[in-house]
Design a protein that fits this description.
flat; 4 helices; mainly alpha; single chain
Length: 88
Amino acid sequence: ADKVEDDDDLRKRLWLRIARYVIDEEKDVRKAIAFIGQTEHLKVEDILPFFPDFSVIDDFKEAICTSLEEYHEQIEELKQGMEEATKS
């Protein structure tokens, strides 16, 4: 999927197809979560809809926490940018 160089949208769609295959065919939640770490194009929220409703949250805990921490950092950066903009 990473061989497509100039099309990030296509890369993401290809990675999503691979992730969906891992989830649907191999039924391996941990492998799918580890899969996210192999690419910067997918986040845990991208693949959550592919998991069955009875999935155990413990399998997602670390990936969800990492994702929330990344969003927190982005929010803090935006807040800082807004504060600097209002001071100017």
